Amino acid sequence: MPQPVEAGPTPPSYPPKTPPPPKKPPNPPRPNPKDPQPGRTAQVPAAGAVMPTARRGVGMRNRRGANWVLESAPWAAGKARAAVVGQLGRWDYRPAPGTVTAVEAVTTLLVQAAVADGGATVSVHLSDQDGQACILALSHHAGLTAGLDDAGGDVLHHVTAHQPVTGCGTDTGPDGRRIWAVIDL
Q1: Is residue 178 within 8 Å of residue 140, measured between CB atoms?
Q2: Is the entire prediction scored with pTM above 0.70?
Q3: Fewer CB within 10 Å: C terminus or N terminus of the chain?
Q4: Lowest mean pLDDT segment, chosen from 59-73, 135-149, 167-181
Q5: Model pLDDT, residue 36
Q6: What is the dihedral of CA 73, 160, 165, 172, to 10 degrees?
Q7: Are 93 and 66 in contact (CB under 8 A)?
Q8: How far apart are the first and last CA of the chain?
Q9: Which is nearest to 137 in space by CA: 118, 103, 110, 119?
């Protein structure tokens, strides 16, 4: 006759139950871009204002816009000139004959300066608001130094020589040098 087993815990005939994995903690709330960052004051741009952004450099709101990316070559100025004048015509701007030549001349100066920076491509951006057009040429040359802003002064003097130009400027960012002009249409 078999001997009785001593009283005690018997090993289970199935594996022990594993605890459930820990729950993923909820993500922290995303920052609201309208809230100021610590140590900074809130800057609210005017409606339709061109404002610098952290990712793209320039942003447009509440206005029409068009852009073209061209090879950085001597012929880029002629192609940009035709594209800008054609787009203004599609937006139903019928400027005076002298204004058309000023738009062409300013576009040529801006694009030639961007081509001279030596990037692989040049982009031309056009926007309009309240009877004015903003033309911006961007040289996509990332290794530029801030000293080119001073070199752009000569180009800006030539741009302001055209009568309907109401403002112009230049700056250097991580994506290259931006040269822009605002023209009354």
Answers
A1: no
A2: no
A3: N
A4: 135-149
A5: 60
A6: 50
A7: no
A8: 114
A9: 110
